[in-house]
Amino acid sequence: MTGDARKTAEQLTHLHGFGNEHSSEAEPGALPAGRNSPQRAPLGLYAEQLSGTAFTEPRAHNRRSWLYRIRPSAAHPAFTRTDNGAVGTAPFTETVPDPNRLRWNPLPEPPAGTDFLAGLWTLGGNGDATQRSGMAVHLYHADSSMERVFSDADGELLIVPERGGLLLRTEFGLLAAGPGQVALIPRGVRFRVELLDDSVRGYVCENYGAPFRLPDLGPIGANGLAAARDFLAPVAAYEDVEGPVEVVNKYCGNLWTATYDHSPLDVVAWHGNYVPYVYDLRRFNVMGTISYDHPDPSIFTVLTSPSDTPGLAGVDFVVFAPRWLVGEDTFRPPYFHRNVMSEYMGLIEGAYDAKTAGEGGFVPGGGSLHNMMSAHGPDRETFDRASAAELRPQKLDDGLAFMFETRWPVTVTRQAADAGHLQQRYDDVWSGLERHFRPLH
User: Fold this and answer.
1) Which among 53, 43, 46, 49 is positioned nearest to 19, based on CA atoms?
2) pLDDT below 50 — which residues of the chain?
3) Which residues, other chains included, contact 252 with Cβ-Cβ below 8 Å and sequence gap of 6+?
4) If one looks up domain 2-10+77-266+273-281 in CATH, what number appears?
5) Catalytic pick from 22, 141, 271, 294?
6) Structural domain boundaries of the chain?
7) DSSP 8-class letter at 18
8) Using the 8-state DSSP alphabet, how is residue 300 labeled?
9) Which residues touch 423 (CB under 8 Å, ≥6 apart)?
């Protein structure tokens, strides 16, 4: 199924601009003309609105879509609690916020038969899902496609594949995402994850706050960073399936399950601006210095979830994409710093220019956490190399790293604090940073 599924999903995408209305129908005439909810929807369908923001939020921020489906979402039996597995949700209270620098190796191999939902493993987060604020960091490792359907009422899911491709079968249609791409599933949208490879692994940011949007560009001007036209949304594709289907709902931190007598992925047509999408990180238009000094990491922001304080995000998604380094008389890797923001960094492929790769280092599938005001920066080996390097124009194209950056400390779960793949000697990467100070007098 791998090749066919990937080809199918690539054919079923179109350009998506943030905030713009889009529409799609899998059957001609399924979209009503002139009315969102006519007395009788076309083709015997049910009209249903899915709202991702409050009705009265400003027009520029309002997110909603109209769905025309075989059965309304209300047609389902009662949900009952089911085991949460390794999934956790804010508020995180199992441990206290930790000022120490932390780094993990990749997740261990999953038991045979693990699907995406069973393979979700929560590292930590902040805020309160019931108050729609904050975020959570999850990882996933799976070897089996989902047969059940999942939705998350607590937040939207930004999925960052690191190994293997995913086919996301959503209410809106199909999306394919592999390493180097990211996919976003809006809050409350139902979907199923099918594997395009034997084993898949990656990261997930669960955003409880305002939906991700493109950051303002300010002095950059009209162009740069991520372009709205490069975000791809699905074309309508529906399942007309009768028979038992397990549907799992994440609600206020717990998983609930119900068995439907039909597939809820039965949307025949839709229109609106509250939709899933996929984005290729290599299309990110990097801005950077062409004179001196390393730019602040905010210049690499792909998506932002704004907070009530202008410029202070609930969570930013940042990518360190291929780019040229040309700064003169400049220490080119990221500088030593302390920050009011907390940073979880992951590696999709290759190496990161401020960290040493290899065994026990910063490797694809692993991750590091530097909470607010925790001092960090290049390791000793990187510092020594960059301080002595000949400063010729240099292309960085052998790695792809990203960061979930958030205004609050990330409190780790107990399973993350006690994990066997937590590196116990991470602080050692900064040992040996010798004194070089030589006073003039």
Assistant:
1) 53
2) 1-2
3) 89, 129, 130, 153, 154
4) 2.60.120.10
5) 294
6) 2-10+77-266+273-281, 282-428
7) T
8) G
9) 102, 103, 104, 105, 360
Q: Give residue 96's pLDDT.
A: 97
- Structure tokens, 383: 């510092």
Distance CA 407, CA 410 (A): 9
End-to-end CA distance of the chain, in Å?
Answer: 73
CATH dotted code for 282-428: 2.60.120.10
Task: Give residue 13's pLDDT.
Answer: 57
| Largest Cα span, the chain | 88
Helices (H), 130-252: none
Residues 345 and 367: their CA atoms lie apart, in Å, by 5
Residue 285: the pLDDT is: 96
Nearest to 12 by CA among 226, 173, 133: 173
**What pLDDT digit, counting tens, does each position of 165-216 carry?**
999 999 999 999 999 999 999 999 999 999 999 999 999 999 999 999 999 9
Q: Is 22 marked active-site? A: no
DSSP 133: E
Rounded to whole angstroms, how far apart are CA atoms 428 and 434? Answer: 13
Q: Give Cβ neighbours of residue 11 (< 8 Å, ≥ 6 apart).
A: none
| Whether the domain at 2-10+77-266+273-281 and the domain at 282-428 fall into the same CATH topology | yes
Strand-pair partners of 176 = 167
